[in-house]
Amino acid sequence: MHTATTLREIADPFAARYGRAMPRGLRADAAGLTWSEFVETYGPSGPARLGCWSSTPLGAGRHRFEAELTFGDRARHFATVATGPIAALSAMLHDAGHALEILSFHQIDTGEGIATFVHCERDARRTWAMAIAADGPDSALRAAIAAVNIFGRGVCATSQ
Protein backbone atom coordinates (compact mmCIF):
# COMPACT_ATOMS: atom_id res chain seq x y z
CA MET A 1 0.00 0.00 0.00
CA HIS A 2 1.32 3.44 -0.96
CA THR A 3 1.29 6.36 1.40
CA ALA A 4 0.42 9.84 0.15
CA THR A 5 4.10 10.78 0.22
CA THR A 6 5.10 7.75 -1.83
CA LEU A 7 2.43 8.51 -4.45
CA ARG A 8 3.57 12.14 -4.60
CA GLU A 9 7.19 11.04 -5.07
CA ILE A 10 6.19 8.74 -7.92
CA ALA A 11 4.13 11.44 -9.63
CA ASP A 12 6.24 14.52 -9.02
CA PRO A 13 9.91 14.54 -7.93
CA PHE A 14 9.70 18.32 -7.43
CA ALA A 15 6.79 17.95 -4.99
CA ALA A 16 8.65 15.20 -3.17
CA ARG A 17 11.56 17.58 -2.65
CA TYR A 18 9.78 20.93 -2.12
CA GLY A 19 6.18 20.07 -1.24
CA ARG A 20 4.82 22.04 -4.20
CA ALA A 21 3.58 20.55 -7.46
CA MET A 22 5.35 21.41 -10.68
CA PRO A 23 3.31 22.38 -13.78
CA ARG A 24 0.75 19.76 -14.77
CA GLY A 25 2.14 19.37 -18.29
CA LEU A 26 5.49 18.28 -16.90
CA ARG A 27 4.27 15.93 -14.14
CA ALA A 28 3.43 12.97 -16.39
CA ASP A 29 6.76 13.16 -18.23
CA ALA A 30 8.71 13.37 -14.97
CA ALA A 31 6.79 10.64 -13.14
CA GLY A 32 9.07 8.07 -11.56
CA LEU A 33 12.28 10.06 -12.00
CA THR A 34 14.60 10.53 -9.05
CA TRP A 35 15.52 14.11 -8.21
CA SER A 36 18.95 13.76 -9.87
CA GLU A 37 17.40 12.21 -13.01
CA PHE A 38 14.85 15.03 -13.09
CA VAL A 39 17.54 17.73 -12.85
CA GLU A 40 19.70 16.04 -15.51
CA THR A 41 16.72 15.70 -17.86
CA TYR A 42 15.09 19.12 -17.42
CA GLY A 43 17.85 21.34 -16.01
CA PRO A 44 20.98 20.13 -17.74
CA SER A 45 24.20 22.01 -17.97
CA GLY A 46 25.79 21.81 -21.36
CA PRO A 47 27.55 23.69 -24.09
CA ALA A 48 25.24 26.73 -23.81
CA ARG A 49 26.09 28.79 -20.73
CA LEU A 50 25.14 32.22 -19.45
CA GLY A 51 28.08 34.30 -18.22
CA CYS A 52 27.94 37.86 -17.00
CA TRP A 53 24.59 39.62 -17.25
CA SER A 54 23.80 43.28 -16.71
CA SER A 55 20.85 45.61 -17.08
CA THR A 56 20.80 49.40 -17.37
CA PRO A 57 17.44 51.22 -17.11
CA LEU A 58 16.72 53.52 -20.06
CA GLY A 59 13.30 54.78 -18.96
CA ALA A 60 9.78 54.05 -20.19
CA GLY A 61 10.13 50.43 -18.99
CA ARG A 62 13.05 49.69 -21.31
CA HIS A 63 16.50 48.43 -20.31
CA ARG A 64 19.77 47.85 -22.10
CA PHE A 65 20.80 44.27 -21.38
CA GLU A 66 24.30 42.92 -21.92
CA ALA A 67 25.40 39.32 -21.56
CA GLU A 68 28.15 36.90 -22.31
CA LEU A 69 26.81 33.67 -23.77
CA THR A 70 29.06 30.70 -24.39
CA PHE A 71 28.25 27.99 -26.92
CA GLY A 72 30.78 25.18 -26.64
CA ASP A 73 34.16 26.85 -26.26
CA ARG A 74 33.14 30.12 -27.96
CA ALA A 75 32.07 33.03 -25.75
CA ARG A 76 30.20 35.92 -27.36
CA HIS A 77 29.07 39.29 -26.06
CA PHE A 78 25.50 40.40 -26.77
CA ALA A 79 23.63 43.63 -26.14
CA THR A 80 19.99 44.49 -26.76
CA VAL A 81 17.24 46.82 -25.59
CA ALA A 82 14.13 45.12 -24.21
CA THR A 83 11.42 45.50 -21.57
CA GLY A 84 12.56 42.50 -19.53
CA PRO A 85 15.27 39.89 -19.14
CA ILE A 86 13.44 37.04 -20.91
CA ALA A 87 12.71 39.23 -23.94
CA ALA A 88 16.37 40.29 -23.98
CA LEU A 89 17.71 36.75 -23.70
CA SER A 90 15.28 35.57 -26.38
CA ALA A 91 16.62 38.23 -28.76
CA MET A 92 20.21 37.29 -27.92
CA LEU A 93 19.56 33.58 -28.45
CA HIS A 94 17.90 34.36 -31.78
CA ASP A 95 20.93 36.41 -32.86
CA ALA A 96 23.17 33.50 -31.86
CA GLY A 97 21.18 31.00 -33.95
CA HIS A 98 19.54 29.33 -30.93
CA ALA A 99 16.06 30.83 -31.12
CA LEU A 100 13.34 29.32 -28.98
CA GLU A 101 9.75 30.19 -28.23
CA ILE A 102 8.52 30.05 -24.65
CA LEU A 103 5.03 28.56 -24.72
CA SER A 104 4.45 28.37 -20.97
CA PHE A 105 6.20 29.98 -18.00
CA HIS A 106 5.81 29.09 -14.30
CA GLN A 107 7.70 30.21 -11.20
CA ILE A 108 7.50 28.67 -7.73
CA ASP A 109 9.18 29.81 -4.52
CA THR A 110 10.84 26.72 -3.06
CA GLY A 111 11.97 28.35 0.16
CA GLU A 112 15.55 27.81 -1.07
CA GLY A 113 15.17 29.89 -4.21
CA ILE A 114 12.86 30.44 -7.16
CA ALA A 115 12.18 27.53 -9.51
CA THR A 116 11.29 28.43 -13.08
CA PHE A 117 9.69 25.97 -15.48
CA VAL A 118 9.49 26.84 -19.18
CA HIS A 119 7.79 24.88 -21.93
CA CYS A 120 9.62 25.78 -25.13
CA GLU A 121 9.48 25.08 -28.83
CA ARG A 122 12.20 25.11 -31.46
CA ASP A 123 11.98 23.74 -35.00
CA ALA A 124 8.61 22.04 -34.27
CA ARG A 125 10.07 20.22 -31.23
CA ARG A 126 8.93 20.95 -27.70
CA THR A 127 10.45 20.44 -24.29
CA TRP A 128 10.16 21.50 -20.68
CA ALA A 129 13.20 22.95 -18.91
CA MET A 130 13.77 24.19 -15.39
CA ALA A 131 16.23 26.01 -13.17
CA ILE A 132 16.39 27.10 -9.56
CA ALA A 133 18.21 30.28 -8.56
CA ALA A 134 18.18 32.90 -5.82
CA ASP A 135 15.78 35.23 -7.66
CA GLY A 136 13.13 35.07 -10.36
CA PRO A 137 15.00 36.76 -13.21
CA ASP A 138 18.14 34.65 -12.77
CA SER A 139 16.07 31.48 -12.48
CA ALA A 140 14.14 32.36 -15.66
CA LEU A 141 17.32 33.06 -17.63
CA ARG A 142 18.89 29.78 -16.51
CA ALA A 143 15.75 27.81 -17.39
CA ALA A 144 15.86 29.22 -20.93
CA ILE A 145 19.54 28.24 -21.21
CA ALA A 146 18.63 24.73 -19.98
CA ALA A 147 16.09 24.54 -22.82
CA VAL A 148 18.80 25.48 -25.34
CA ASN A 149 20.94 22.66 -23.95
CA ILE A 150 18.07 20.17 -24.19
CA PHE A 151 17.41 21.14 -27.81
CA GLY A 152 21.14 20.88 -28.46
CA ARG A 153 21.11 17.25 -27.36
CA GLY A 154 18.78 16.54 -30.27
CA VAL A 155 16.34 14.64 -28.07
CA CYS A 156 13.59 16.56 -26.35
CA ALA A 157 12.16 15.59 -23.02
CA THR A 158 8.58 15.87 -24.29
CA SER A 159 6.70 16.35 -27.50
CA GLN A 160 3.51 17.76 -25.95
Q: Note poorly predicted spans.
A: 1-9
- Portion of residues in beta strands equals 35-45%
Structural class category: alpha+beta
Instruction: Tell me the helix content.
Output: 25-40%
* Total DSSP helices: 6
> Globular, elongated, flat, extended or rod-shaped: what is the shape?
globular
Strand order of the largest sheet: 1-2-3
**N-to-C series of helices and strands:** HHHHEEEHEEEH
Any idea what the radius of gyration is? 16 Å
Main sheet makeup: 3 strands, antiparallel
What is the CATH C-level name?
Alpha Beta
How far is it from the N-terminal to the C-terminal residue, by CA? 32 Å
The figure for the number of domains is 1
CATH topology: Double Stranded RNA Binding Domain
Number of strands: 6
| CATH homologous superfamily classification | Alpha-isopropylmalate synthase LeuA, regulatory domain
* CATH architecture descriptor: 2-Layer Sandwich
Mean pLDDT: 90
What does this 3D model show about the protein?
The longest helix is centred in the last third of the chain and has 18 residues, at 136-153. It is built from 6 helices and 6 strands. It has a 3-stranded antiparallel β-sheet. A 3-stranded antiparallel β-sheet has the order 4-5-6. It is α+β, with helices and mostly antiparallel strands and 160 residues long. The protein has a single domain (4-153), classed as Double Stranded RNA Binding Domain (2-Layer Sandwich), CATH 3.30.160.
